[in-house]
Amino acid sequence: MKTLTRLREGFLTGTAGASDYWKGEGELSLYERTFAQRIAWKWDAVLNELALRLWAPPSRRLVDWGCGTGIATRRTLEQWPDQFETLALSDRSPQARAFAVGRLREAHPGRIARALAPEETDCAGAVVLLSHVLTELSADQLRRALSQWRNAAALIWVESATRENARRLVSDVREPLLAAGWKAVAPCTHCGACPLLRTEHERHWCHHFARVPSDVHQDSAWRELSKKLNVDLRVLPYSFVVLERESAREPEDGWSRVIGTPRELKGHLKVLACDAGGVGDWVLQKRDAPELYKELRKGESLPLHRWRVEGGRITGEV
Ligand SMILES: C[S@@+](CC[C@H](N)C(=O)[O-])C[C@H]1O[C@@H](n2cnc3c(N)ncnc32)[C@H](O)[C@@H]1O
To answer: With CB atoms counted within 10 Å of each terminal CB, which end of the chain scores lower, N or C?
Structure first.
């Protein structure tokens, strides 16, 4: 647990960015079995949402930037097994990229990935995956990296859902790329300025919850990790943005995206949702739309809705 505690402290306090912290294959392997698995479930949620939105990667080239053990690439290849012709696993840590290449070869024999240092990674025209790397980038590093990604075809970026991360992902990645002509794919339903950045919504941040596989709760190793590291295994919040440089599709008007999960109060749900017009904290009473109520309460479907709102109440779907 000492290693995991040290790693986690670095991630949480924002000190991990200072220098390469990977201390050998054993440590990468431990990360892969623990933190990387939780990250994988977040990727599953994001990739599932992209599939439900009928989005397909606009390139045959994949770059995993800050790849660590390469979990994002392996999950992405499961989602789109035949999409990518070239794979690049890029990390400032030579040990991490070598580990990631090895794991990829085990999971997908026959697939060849190149291990690259960030400065030799060409992102032009590629789908770039980014995962849990934001807290390790200073403002300056992020600005420089953004210029490396500006000619990419798309970015899929998944992060832990702290308020700071979620808001930085929007203000320092989504907004500058949209200003440069990129399009928002998800979680947004529009390409306008993010309404959550307005002062009146300061207390909110764009985040969502991934499903944790049920067998995890019966697993003694996970239970021990949860106890020792104080990690709540029941909830798995994440934030993400998916952006593409050129888009064949314009977002359709009228769609709202649920943020977080609806809160159940006495006989009604409070639903925080974002759309092109702004952010609303709507009330949904069961009697107004029983089917929708059931669907939102279960939280199993794609959290995109076209609803009618009257006086702060959702009264049904359009
Ligand atoms: C917390 S790990 C996440 C790894 C992997 N993306 C994942 O989601 O499991 C962050 C990774 O980013 C790498 N990293 C940190 N700063 C970097 C930089 N400036 N350039 C490239 N890689 C960097 C670290 O070496 C580490 O492997």
So the answer is: C
